[in-house]
Amino acid sequence: MTKTIVFDLDGTLLNTLEDLTDSVNHAMRQFHLPEHSIEEIRTYVGNGAAKLIERAIPEGTKNAAYDKILETFRQHYQLHCEDKTGPYDGVLEMLAQLKQEGYRMAIVSNKPDGAVKQLFHKYFSAYVEAAVGEHPGAMKKPAPDMVHQALAELMSDVSHAVYVGDSEVDLQTAANVPMPCISVLWGFRTEEELLAAGAVRENMIRTPQALLPYLLRLPQAE
After folding, report:
1. Alpha carbon 11 to chain centroid distance?
2. pTM of full prediction above 0.90
3. How far apart are CA 15 and CA 49, in angstroms?
4. What is the rounded distance in angstroms from the CA atom of residue 180 to the CA atom of residue 135?
5. What is the CA radius of gyration of the chain?
């Protein structure tokens, strides 16, 4: 029986796109580089801060100022990661209902662990028991390391768990664990992008309210 849910954060539980865009563009301005639209940043996110900045600057990691730009972004985002960020409509109600039904939940994100913990405590600690972000000693998603860490913190069995995310990185992460993946359609990727990345249409949900009914339809064999 599925009783554990591992959630992605950005694009799944929280709409973080405006704050990410603002922090990227702050770093761009400091180094006199072209700024980016929110739509461009949407396509850059998913693999952590280092990859986000690599995609955002000319020459990527070959840019001589790459490390300084990345650090500028990290510092700004740590201070401003809550300015415009908030849960998607219906997410907190979904989590409350899942908790009431006895599900145990964790968050796994490629954001820096400090930012993940900060956002977790502000929005989700009443419902979710564990939150794991990027940190030394664990490879970022799509590697399975952080998912296994979260499951260990919950003392949960992967055979009774599902993964919920909004991107191709989440699909790859779930496959690498391995565990089933539910793809949400309110996040940073379109339905077409998810299908192209290997998502199954039957495993997609359009609203947070659809998650519990989906879970209840899963096979209940132990």
Report:
1. 6
2. yes
3. 16
4. 25
5. 17
